[in-house]
Write a structure and sequence with these properties.
Layout (H helix, E strand, L loop, with lengths): L1 H18 L10 E2 L3 E4 L2 E4 L1 E3 L2 E8 L22 E3 L26 E7 L1 E2 L4 E7 L15 H7 L2 E5 L4 H5 L13 H16 L5 E11 L1 H10 L10 E5 L8 H14 L6 H9 L3 H6 L2 H4 L19 H7 L7 E6 L15 H12 L1 H10 L10 H13 L7 H14 L3 E6 L29 H4 L5 H20 L17 E5 L6 E4 H7 L2 H4 L11 H7 L6
Parallel strand pairs: 3-6, 9-10, 9-11, 11-12, 12-13, 13-14, 14-15
Antiparallel strand pairs: 1-8, 2-3, 4-5, 5-7, 7-10, 15-16
Helix pairs in contact: 11-12
Enzyme class: hydrolase
EC number: 3.1.1.-
Keywords: Hydrolase, Signal
Length: 548
């Protein structure tokens, strides 16, 4: 009987360790003040559920009036104590959301800090989060850092940065520096604020890990390649993001097309003056073509001082900030984006593949991804998303090019860790047709790390994976290594292993050969092809696929 009791007690202790219900803070830790002095003034935060929250802190001057389309300028000091109990305005974007957020304004360069309420005086590592949204949407308030701060005993910073035409417009005469990359420069300004001030919130400026998903992941890669960002961070996490960028010529063409659509034409000075005089709403209304679609939207611009090389080139040639890296993607990144092919016949699917790859390469692709191998009634979507996922033609995201990108990082940085989020049925926010299997689509891992989605996790196994991922991410922020006690060991990619993240206790390290086999990388690495530059709905229309 005693042995049974001891075994049950040991099992309970192991379960509590896995769930990490209580923040691993020493008993001697004490509450810290909710009033904190920054270099621009004092802020007063709030406390809830073991976390101190300091919201809506300006890290740069409002980019309004003459500061519209200028690099971020220093914020002004404020007198007295500034309340930091509510989020700042979201940066202007076309997607209005459900109306429950803090509203939109060009005065949006704010950040939020989450700290454990009880901690020792030893500085804590910092997770600096850059939101996704295609560089055209999203905001820091969508990501509550309380859970990670509390359970992992780290400081979390979330930010806003300029989006769409306000953050990435490039035109002659727009500004002396930064045209096309104002949003990227905003991120760097927020990092500099963090370097100057995070110690006052209990953070360690020498242990800042930048992290982002989707466009936030693209941003992390761009920051790794940006000379002005050197020394602003000590680690990086890229979730479902790659290293795409535009050339200055591409950005200028895009900018000129936008100016025309906005009703501004003529000499450069006239165009710039015309755009500066327009209200926010009118600029947003003219931005549909600028923000584009999934593959024709906004990206950072290379060939300029803040980004001299295309990030993909910088990674390939080793001219990046060499810091520990955690990188990965979801198993079925693009499946939902392939829904325009839901009604595709075999002939229409094959026509789309020939349009994308050309007649010679298309035959080989179709031999590896035959229409007949996929379940109906959505065979067209499953087939084309499978080859898109494996080939990484969406900005190099997921699949074989993503594995190759990770190998390029790992060749120079031994502390590179690779994962694939493999929950076969995670909850998603997207509305999909009846009977359609979304798999593990883009962004479906976010709910496992951030509280805004965790309530949607349906099973105990998914909730255990969620806690395991929080602990893995926290361990990486703290130790530049995701391996943590009580969970499956996570070897570096140099060891030839990656982590397959699965519900329950089934996550495991698998060989890179398993990943390559699952994505048919021996085939994709043997042929030459480019990233897809046509959005799925347009390609489907070109192939004659009827809309649903």
């Amino acid at each position: 009987m005693r042995s049974i009791v001891l075994r049950r007690l040991a099992a309970l202790v192991s379960l509590l360790a896995l769930l990490n219900v209580v923040s691993p803070v020493p008993a001697s830790a004490a509450p810290h003040s909710l009033t904190v002095s920054t270099d621009k003034g004092t802020v007063a935060g709030t406390a809830a559920a073991g976390v101190n929250r300091f919201l809506g802190i300006p890290y740069a001057a409002p980019p309004t009036d003459v500061r519209r389309w200028q690099p971020p300028a220093p914020a002004s000091a404020w007198p007295g104590v500034r309340p930091a109990a509510s989020y700042g305005s979201r940066c202007p974007q076309s997607a209005a959301g459900d109306g429950s957020g803090p509203g939109m304004s060009e005065d949006c360069l704010h950040l939020n800090v989450f700290t454990p309420e009880h901690r020792t005086n030893r500085p804590l590592p910092v997770l600096f989060w850059i939101h996704g949204g295609g560089f055209a949407g999203g905001s820091g308030d969508l990501y509550d850092g309380s859970r990670i701060a509390r359970t992992e005993n780290v400081v979390v910073v979330t930010i806003n940065y300029r989006l769409g035409v306000f953050g990435f417009l490039d035109l002659p005469g727009l500004s002396r520096q930064g045209a096309g990359n104002y949003g990227l420069l905003d991120q760097q300004a927020a990092l500099r604020w963090t370097q100057r001030n995070i110690h006052a919130f209990g953070g360690d400026a020498g242990r800042v890990t930048i992290s982002g998903e989707s466009a936030g992941g693209h941003s992390v890669c761009a920051l790794l390649a940006s000379p002005p960002a050197r020394s602003l961070f000590a680690g990086a996490i890229i979730q479902s993001g790659g290293c795409p960028s535009l050339t200055t010529a591409q950005a200028l063409t895009k900018g000129k097309d936008y100016a025309t659509a906005a009703g501004c034409s003529g000499p450069a000075t006239t165009v710039v003056s015309c755009l500066r005089a327009k209200p926010t709403s009118e600029l947003l209304g003219a931005g549909g073509g600028f923000t584009g679609g999934i593959l024709t939207g906004v990206l950072p611009v290379s060939g300029v001082p803040e980004l001299p090389l295309a990030p993909s080139v910088a990674v390939r040639t080793g001219r990046i900030h060499n810091v520990p890296l955690l990188i990965g993607s979801t198993r079925d990144e693009v499946r939902q984006w392939a829904l325009p092919f839901a009604n595709a016949t075999r002939a229409q699917y094959e026509r789309a593949v020939r349009l994308e790859f050309g007649p010679r390469t298309a035959d080989a692709v179709l031999a590896h991804y035959p229409y007949s191998a996929y379940d109906r009634p959505y065979a067209g979507t499953y087939a084309i998303s499978a080859l898109w996922d494996d080939s990484s033609v969406f900005y190099g995201l997921g699949g074989c090019q993503y594995q190759n990108l990770t190998a390029q990082f790992a060749a120079r940085q031994p502390r590179t860790y690779f994962y694939q989020f493999d929950d076969p049925h995670p909850p998603t926010l997207a509305t999909t047709p009846a009977g359609f299997d979304s798999g593990a689509p883009h962004a479906s891992e976010l709910g496992y790390l951030w509280p805004m989605e965790t309530s949607k996790l349906q099973t105990p196994e998914q909730r255990r994976l969620s806690m395991a991922m929080v602990r893995y991410w926290g361990a990486f922020v703290k130790h530049a290594n995701p391996t943590t006690a009580g969970l499956a060991a996570w070897p570096s990619y140099r060891s030839g292993k990656y982590m397959s993240l699965l519900p329950g206790d089934d996550s495991q390290a698998l060989t890179s050969e398993v990943y390559a086999d699952r994505h048919q990388c021996s085939f994709w690495n043997s042929i030459s092809y480019d990233w897809l530059t046509t959005d799925p709905d347009r390609l489907a229309a070109q192939a004659g696929v009827p809309t649903s």
